[in-house]
Amino acid sequence: MWHNKSNYFGNPNQLTVIFRKNHMSGYHFLFVPGPSNVPAAVQQAIHCPMEDHRNPTIPDLIQPITQDLKKILRTESGKVVFFPSSGTGCWEAALQSTLNVGDKVLGASFGQFSYLWLDMCKRLQFEPITMEEEWGTGANPESYHKHLSEDKNHEIKCVLVCQNETATGVRSDVAAIRKVLDDLNHPALLFVDGVSSVASYEFEMDKWGVDAIVSGSQKGFMLPAGLGILGVSQKAIDAMKNSKYPTCYFDVADMIEKLDGGYLPYTPPVNLLRGFRVAIDMIFDEGLENIWKRHHRLAEGTRKAITEGWGLNLCAKEAKWYSDTVSAIVVPEGFDASKVISTAFNKYNLALGAGLSKVAGKVFRIGHLGDLNECMLFGAISGAEMAMLENGIKVEPGSGAAAASKYWSSN
Fold this sequence. Notes:
Elements: E1 6-8, E2 17-19, E3 29-31, H1 40-46, H2 58-73, E4 79-83, H3 87-98, E5 104-109, H4 112-123, E6 127-132, H5 141-150, E7 156-162, E8 164-165, E9 170-171, H6 174-183, E10 189-193, E11 212-216, E12 228-232, H7 234-240, H8 252-260, H9 270-286, H10 288-309, E13 313-314, E14 326-330, H11 337-348, E15 350-354, E16 363-367, H12 374-390, H13 399-410
Parallel strand pairs: 3-15, 5-6, 5-7, 7-10, 10-11
Antiparallel strand pairs: 1-2, 4-12, 8-9, 11-12, 13-14, 14-16, 15-16
């Protein structure tokens, strides 16, 4: 039976009321690696009356957002567009608008999302060259160098890199892949999935020579899901002129043209854009570099809880791969991570990320990105610890929070 009792979902100021089968006191702790918590000020901005999306004030909302997104993506020469979609929609938009059927695309597969982008290439009738890497590692510059150096006729038209692989908590070095392309003087486009890294840790579109960067609203941008964000370089824009791939909804050139005038080709989610304005203001108020530092510090404390407090391993094999937005924790042999996740949700009102594909049942994930601080992460750490103990995983009670506290209080 559904009860009429309700509790607030998200942070203490969240206004959205949900109905749960079994009422729980207190707040719901959301620690999946997206969607992330939506700040109260952003929620209030979204919670506004419907309005005509063609009214003459809309350009005053949209044009500053596109210009400010360029600052967040760190580009002066590129263009930024957004689609009413998820980040997956912008994967598709970037590929379809710049390439032709049969074009070769090179990418590394080392987790669920890096794999899915390459799978999309196959479905869209491009020719993906997939470099299989061990899950727990990231994009290997040596693998890219091998394939690109053998591509004497420059048949590879695009290179894909997933900067942050959410499934395994792995971060890749985009600048290193750009260096490979530059060292070989290879003309391929460089496309980056930054869905769970942009607005959370360092990304430099112009400096790293990125031709397309894909992100989404529901992670570092602190919004509900529903907006896909895409930055494109002038090189990518030039490639659109030679693309014969049929596009409609996800036509980037159409979107650029309409956004330059302050509108979208179709009905935009104006309420989300009202929230977007506030979220961007919050990012600028804190300072982008400060946000990068905060995420690294919070991630380091979480990793101390996992490795020093609990004595468990991260899915990421080495420190160079560690993500600052999500940690994937490997449960000991013989235990089921999905039971830990279920206990955390049903008993402690804590949402943890599940293991996907190859690591299903082997890991659970703590997302630490967006609008959060140390005390919020203590809730995730302590809740996960209690859920593990209830499922027979022998960790010392309080050890995770103690290790995190020791790090955070001295850093």
